[in-house]
Each structure stands twice: as C-alpha cells, then as structure tokens.
Amino acid sequence: MKLSYPILFVIFTGLSLFSCSPKAAINTELKKELDMIMFTDQAFRRQYDPKMSEAERRDIADSLNLNYDEMRRNLLVLMNRYDTENTKKIETIIAKYGYPGKSLVGEPTNQAAFLVIQHSSVIPKYLPLIKVVAEKKELPFMLYAMMLDRHLMYKGEEQIYGSQGDERDGVAIIWPIKDVVNVNKLRKEAGFPETVEEYSKLLFGEEFIFKSYTLKEVEEMFAGQIISY
Hints:
Layout: H1 28-45, H2 54-63, H3 68-73, H4 75-97, H5 102-105, H6 112-118, H7 123-135, H8 141-154, E1 165-168, E2 171-174, H9 183-190, H10 196-204, H11 215-221
C-alpha cells in the first residue's frame, strides 16, 4: 500500500543548512535560486518541530507571503505543493548544469538539490548521480548514504546506515537495518557524527530507545502499510 512520505524534517548534525563557506567563482544567480528552493523545502517541515517558536513560524509565513493561520491549517498541502514545484525546478537545473555541487554553488547550497530529491519520488532516477557527486566530494557522502537508505526503505528492503525512521499512530521505529552489528562502523565511515542509538533520539526524542526490527516485524506492526514510491 502506498503511503505519504514520513513528515520528518531533515536533521543534519555537523552539517549546517544556514551557514555558508566562502567559495570563488560560484554561479551567484543559480545559488540564489537554490537557496530559495532549499528554504521552501525546509520551511514547512521545520514547523513539525515542537521546539520551533511561534515567532519563527510567523517569519516563515511572512517570507512566503502566506497568511499565518491558513499556513498552519494547511502545512501538509503547502509542503506537497512546494515539493512538486521544487522537484520540477531541480530537474530543470540538473538538465542544464548537472548536479549543482560545491564547485558551482558553494556550501551549503550544494545540499539544495539533494533535499528536494530526497523528498520526492524521483530518488531512483537520481541516486546514481548523487553517488558520483558524493564520491567527487561535491556533496557530503553522508547525504548519499541517507538517500540510499531512503531508497531501500521505499523498496521495502533493509537500510544500510540506519538513517531512516518511520512513525505511525504514535509508534516510532528506525527502519530495519541490514547489518545492525556493524551499522555504527558503517555510519562512521560514511561521515555520520552519531551512532544509530544517538541519532534515533534526535529523530524521536530523548526518551526513545533504539530497537532493531526485522522487515516482517515491521510489516506486521504497521498492518502491511509499508512506505513505497
């Protein structure tokens, strides 16, 4: 059964979305466009964070010329609308420039296309490109690892790095991991700064206790309602 994507804003520990490293000879117009795309990608997801203040939420509404109350009532609808528009924009950009990596738009703007693809149904189309870009250090390898994990989860397979979680009806889990014994070693090699146990608390709160599940257990737990493309 196909379901909506999990509403989890992206957590980048050790990677800032809002600080920029100086970089020469970048495409400033493209950077400006991608920065706005990245802002809108995160604007609605961040509002699911209970720690976010009302002032911050109102600033987002003002930035997007939205009525605050209407925005709050229609967060999911607006997020899906912007996701669709952003995906079209990113596909056009990639067709023209290739992946807009660090050399072209600097950091952290090089994460913009990744974020949009990660929140779309076109991951299978661009996952090989993201891998090549990450191997060339135009994008942190950790982000490729996150996209690979999400791709595997949507295929109903075990993830590698333990970066993907799911929550239904108040039940939160880290998606089944292929090699849970060595997952923290793999995470470290990929650039993740935390163990899967630490990361799970960032996703679901300090009270969350990581537990390893099998695919069969998860299917039974969620009554066969597995996330898919």
